[in-house]
């Protein structure tokens, strides 16, 4: 065949391939029209979380809010060659503008944990921040799906719920405590212990998001795994205490920020996909619940366009996991009460 004709055909094939790719990409973005607001976008979790959200085709508008430095973070991110439009909002007077039209609000705002501090030590500062952000959400975007990262999650989710309830816009299916990091850690540690691909491991983690309230259901892991009694105990205790492990390793420079940003992004993408009607979106999260005696509890959830479609519950627990549950409930109840009392005092 004539070389010129062959080259023309190759060139035409390349152009057609490019058009097909461009069209499919356009269709993908057209079906992923979600506005996400990040409250606390300039912080240690907020910045890498915002970066991950900017890079995703699930997000078309990214609204960044914090009390300082947000315009700089937004300007920096806006130069990245992805479809999401980015805008930064600074200070309390711009909070309501930041939340306008938001379908998903993710809240990593607050102070980080330092060596020697428990999540409870963060309570007073972070409780006030979450309360004020929840008030603004109640007024501006009451139908948004809200994911709370700010610790102590066991208390901050009840705080946000009480605020929304007082405002008359509370929908328990739309408020989530983002406990995804516990799942991510469990998947990683189980994969390491059994030499598995961590992306193929799924361990449900139920309960709360601190210390003994974190209950990894290793008996329900997929693929199925088995450990000796001692190894199981050691793995469980590591999953429960990994936050402290990071705080110590950072030696005063903060707590888990990068892994939390990854986990927060994973959960946000699940909400985006659910909003667009994708079926079978299942994630563990800390929510209002009647599964146990605790008013709030994390379990696997089927999530749809309006939030929780179905709470999938605890499943069958091993004897060891039943003991963990019994130890977690009193602590959870105390944390929940503390959050509710903060709003109602």
From TrEMBL:
Chain positions recorded as NAD(+) binding sites: 40-46, 66, 126, 149-151, 260
A molecular function (GO) term: L-malate dehydrogenase (NAD+) activity
Cellular component terms (Gene Ontology): mitochondrion
Organism: Coptotermes formosanus
EC number: 1.1.1.37
Signal peptide: none
CDD domains to which the protein is assigned, alphabetical: MDH_glyoxysomal_mitochondrial (cd01337)
Lactate/malate dehydrogenase C-terminal domain segment(s): 180-343
Active site location: 209
Record: residues binding substrate: 113, 119, 151, 185
GO BP terms, alphabetized: carboxylic acid metabolic process; tricarboxylic acid cycle
Catalytic activity as recorded in UniProt: (S)-malate + NAD(+) = oxaloacetate + NADH + H(+)
Matches recorded under NCBIfam families: MDH_euk_gproteo
Stated name of the protein: Malate dehydrogenase, mitochondrial
Phylogenetic placement of the source organism: Eukaryota, Metazoa, Ecdysozoa, Arthropoda, Hexapoda
Residue ranges of domain Lactate/malate dehydrogenase N-terminal in the record: 34-177
Pfam families: Ldh_1_C (PF02866), Ldh_1_N (PF00056)
Keywords: NAD, Oxidoreductase, Tricarboxylic acid cycle
Complex formation: Homodimer.
Family from the record: Belongs to the LDH/MDH superfamily. MDH type 1 family.
InterPro entries named in the record: L-lactate/malate_DH, Lactate/malate_DH_C, Lactate/malate_DH_N, Lactate_DH/Glyco_Ohase_4_C, Malate_DH_type1, NAD(P)-bd_dom_sf
Residues passing through the membrane, by range: none
């Amino acid at each position: 065949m004539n070389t010129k004709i062959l080259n023309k055909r190759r060139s035409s094939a390349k152009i057609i391939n490019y058009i097909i790719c461009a069209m499919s990409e356009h269709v993908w973005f057209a079906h992923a029209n979600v506005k996400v607001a990040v409250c606390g976008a300039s912080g240690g979790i907020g910045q890498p979380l915002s970066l991950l959200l900017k890079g995703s085709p699930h997000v078309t508008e990214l609204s960044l809010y914090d009390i300082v430095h947000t315009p700089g973070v937004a300007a920096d991110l806006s130069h990245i060659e992805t479809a999401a439009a980015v805008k930064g909002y600074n200070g309390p007077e711009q909070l309501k503008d930041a939340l306008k039209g938001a379908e998903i609000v993710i809240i990593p705002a607050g102070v980080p944990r330092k060596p020697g501090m428990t999540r409870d030590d963060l309570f007073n500062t972070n409780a006030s921040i979450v309360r004020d952000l929840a008030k603004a959400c109640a007024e501006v975007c009451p139908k948004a799906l809200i994911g709370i990262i700010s610790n102590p999650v066991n208390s901050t989710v009840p705080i946000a719920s009480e605020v929304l309830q007082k405002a008359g816009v509370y929908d328990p299916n739309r408020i989530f405590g983002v406990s995804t990091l516990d799942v991510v850690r469990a998947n990683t540690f189980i994969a390491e212990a059994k030499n598995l691909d961590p992306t193929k491991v799924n361990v449900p983690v139920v309960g709360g998001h601190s210390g003994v309230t974190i209950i990894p259901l290793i008996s329900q892991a997929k693929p199925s795994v088995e450990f000796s009694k001692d190894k199981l105990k050691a793995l469980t205790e590591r999953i429960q205490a990994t936050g402290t492990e990071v705080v110590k390793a950072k030696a005063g420079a903060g707590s888990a920020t990068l892994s939390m940003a990854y986990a927060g992004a994973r959960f946000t993408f699940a909400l985006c996909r659910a909003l667009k009607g994708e079926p079978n979106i299942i994630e563990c999260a800390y929510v209002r619940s009647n599964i146990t005696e605790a008013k709030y509890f994390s379990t696997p959830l089927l999530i749809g366009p309006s939030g929780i479609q179905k709470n999938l519950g605890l499943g069958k627990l091993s004897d060891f996991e039943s003991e963990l549950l019994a130890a977690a409930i009193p602590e959870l109840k105390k944390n929940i009460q503390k959050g509710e009392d903060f709003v109602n005092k």
